[in-house]
Design a protein that fits this description.
The structure is a single chain. The protein has 395 residues and is of the alpha/beta class. The protein has one domain: 3-Layer(aba) Sandwich (Peroxisomal Thiolase, Chain A, domain 1), CATH 3.40.47.10. The protein has 13 helices and 13 strands. Strands 1-7-6-4-5 form a five-stranded mixed beta sheet, with helices on both faces. Helix 3 packs across helix 4 and helix 8 packs parallel to helix 9. The longest helix is centred in the middle third of the chain and has 22 residues. The relative contact order is 0.19. Bound molecules: oxa(dethia)-CoA (UT7). Oxa(dethia)-CoA binds next to helix 2, helix 6 and helix 8.
Length: 395
């Protein structure tokens, strides 16, 4: 008797974005930049910032419960949790373990996946392999990041790019054809130090010296990274598409990693497709690293951009250098996502804290100060005395 072929279908999807918004104009107040520069070079207009009581695990848990509700299953039916992040709550335990408890699951194996901005696609491909091999029936795949706590707010080349958020999908086994069709993953370590966070690991354990030198912040060679991304994203996507027996024109919608609008335009050009095949939401969230693809996927589905039978490609690149793409045939009722989102609020979720310990002032001081002060206000001209310094508009 032949073993039935097991396909991995996306049955649930959900996202969570923290409420606080940080605009380009806000950033103009702490670094030498401008809304015009940021919009024209990246496409980003604003990003979200997690509140002091939020963490990567708490945001991930909200997105996960929304995805599980959308899938219409019980949290305990999940038998594997894969959480992609480069900003875990702790070095150990895994953030996935904290999420498992927060969503009320008792059965799943849970682990984090470290592949930077490609992490969600890597985790998705791993989930497909678990399902195809019969090792798992329902896998929760999460991308969650709290990047705003790892940025140097004196470095205008990085602090304008990143934001916080989480997205999740449920992949479920089925003998029905469709679902995840093929994937491609690459790693090019010659780019290892193009995006990196130098200190805190075994090579440079945290110390007063590493902190004084700002080695606990994300560093990036923007130009080199840009070049890698424009070279690799289209070829990685094309490889996944061809492995699925398809051509670019067969793909209804691409969900690219949301790093830079110019990179996404290069992907469209490389594939010979118009920009309306590329989903873009980085204007509202900035680059949320491993969270960017699942947030964009959940939004695209809820906005009616995908229907049953459509082919969609997820494609990402990031530190490592890594890149990954998955070609999917969409099989779920798109209408389910909006109800799943509405069923869960941030107040429904709590991540257990350690006994007798909580972090003090988790938000970097420069960012905390910016979020405390209201943005520039329009001051009536009558109130301005000529010769006086321009009103700062801040309290
Ligand atoms: O998820 C993966 C994460 N990484 C990425 O996505 C990064 C990919 N790279 C990029 O998106 C782009 O390289 C950036 C947006 C980071 C930078 O854009 P660029 O067009 O490559 O600018 P650049 O680095 O070549 O800098 C051009 C100029 C420089 O000034 P000078 O030396 O020409 O006088 C920079 O100092 O722009 C300056 N600059 C800024 N000016 C105003 C850099 N950052 C800023 C800023 N505001 N925020």
């Amino acid at each position: 008797m032949n073993t039935p072929v097991r396909h991995a279908h996306v049955t649930g999807w959900g996202r969570y974005a923290p409420a606080q918004v940080l605009t380009n104009r806000d950033l103009e107040r702490i670094v030498d930049t401008s809304d015009e520069w940021i919009v024209s070079r990246t496409g980003i207009r604003e990003r979200r910032v997690a509140a002091a009581n939020e963490t990567t695990a708490s945001m991930a848990a909200v997105a996960s419960l929304r995805a599980i509700r959308t899938a219409g299953i019980d949290p305990d039916e999940i038998d594997l949790i894969l959480l992609a992040t480069l900003t875990p709550d702790y070095w150990m335990p895994s953030t996935a373990a904290l999420v498992k408890e927060a969503i009320g699951n008792t059965r799943a194996a849970a682990m984090d996946v470290s592949a930077a901005c490609s992490g969600f696609v890597y985790a998705f491909a791993t989930a497909q392999a678990y399902i195809a091999s019969g090792l798992a029936k329902h896998v929760l795949v999460i991308g969650a990041e709290l990047l705003t706590r790892f940025l140097d707010y004196t470095d205008r080349s990085t602090c304008i790019l990143f934001g916080d958020g989480a997205g999740a999908v449920v992949l479920s086994a089925s003998e029905e054809p469709g679902g995840s069709l093929a994937f491609e993953m690459t790693t090019e370590p010659q780019g290892a130090y193009m995006i990196w966070l130098p200190a805190g690991g075994a090579k440079a354990p945290p110390s007063a010296g590493t902190i004084a030198r700002g080695e606990h912040y994300i560093r990036m060679e923007g130009n080199q990274t840009y070049r890698f991304a424009t070279r690799t994203m289209a070829t990685t996507a094309l490889s996944a598409i061809r492995k699925a027996g398809l051509e670019p024109d067969d793909i209804k919608l691409f969900i690219p990693h949301q790093a830079n609008n110019r990179i996404i335009e290069a992907v469209a050009k490389g594939l010979g497709l118009p920009m309306d095949r590329m989903y873009v939401n980085l204007d509202r969230y900035g680059n949320t690293s491993a969270a960017s693809v699942p947030i964009a996927l959940a939004e695209a589905v809820n906005e009616g951009r995908l229907d049953v039978g459509d082919r969609v490609v997820l494609v990402a690149f990031g530190a490592g250098f890594t890149s990954g793409a998955v070609a999917i045939e969409w099989t779920a009722d798109p209408a389910r996502g909006i109800a799943g989102d509405a069923a869960v609020t941030a107040d429904d979720v709590s991540v257990r804290l350690p006994v007798d310990w909580d972090s003090v002032d988790p938000i970097p001081e420069a960012l905390a100060e910016l979020m405390r002060r209201p943005g520039p206000v329009d001051v009536p001209l009558d109130d301005v005395v000529p010769g006086e310094p321009e009103p700062a508009g801040i309290s």
